[in-house]
Amino acid sequence: MRIYQESDYEAMSRRAANLISAEVIRNPACVLGLATGSTPVGTYKQLAVWSQKGDFSFKEVTTVNLDEYKGLAPTHDQSYRYFMQANFFDHIDIDAAKTHIPDGLAADPGAECARYDELIRSLGYADLQLLGLGHNGHIGFNEPCDNFVKATHVIDLAESTIAANARFFSSADDVPRQALTMGIGCIMAARRVLLIASGADKADAVYNAFCGPITPFCPASILQLHNDMVLVGDKAALSKLVAAGVPVYE
Ligand SMILES: O=P(O)(O)OC[C@H]1O[C@](O)(CO)[C@@H](O)[C@@H]1O
Which of 234, 230, 205 is nearest to 220 (CA)? Predict the structure, then answer.
């Protein structure tokens, strides 16, 4: 595993954008696994700036997002489809037909999960999977539980996740209680995983994920077994790893 320690959120975003753009330049028709949440916003902004300058193009890139809230329409301003359009896709030259996100309104969510798994498999899995990290160690919406769930599935969101995401809704009551999430199987099948983390409030989650035991009670801990894992964090998020003596690139 390679760990980059950056000074702050901006530097973390730039480093992550560098790694993603390197992938797109190397393989213009790559498959990118993408994430939502506040952490990747700066990364998407930086990628859009560079591609608008003409440094590289997303025309041939295919994207697969990790998750979507169950019950939210793509036009809902808190849906992850809306987030991706507003924060990334509307600012780059990507082909809309090549951007994939689970359908939160599917009449049969189980069938939608199976379709999504098959889609990712048929694409040959992600060349690079971008991940944020939940305070409880979740990746995508794979919440802590007593087993790792391999396939795309419908998940009951943890109370702590609902509370953390309430800031984006009018109240905690408005946060959907379920989501469709890529499982651990597709995440681990990605050729490279890039996890980004920022802020002191993520220091425990980062430490537990990469210094703690590999356990489904901290879903991100499975990434210790990935053979091309890159962690990019700012100083605050990596503080407990560094204090434990884990070597980092600066
Ligand atoms: O980047 P944030 O907003 O801290 O969120 C971290 C994680 O939580 C989620 O937003 C879901 O709660 C994930 O999409 C993300 O990876």
Answer: 205
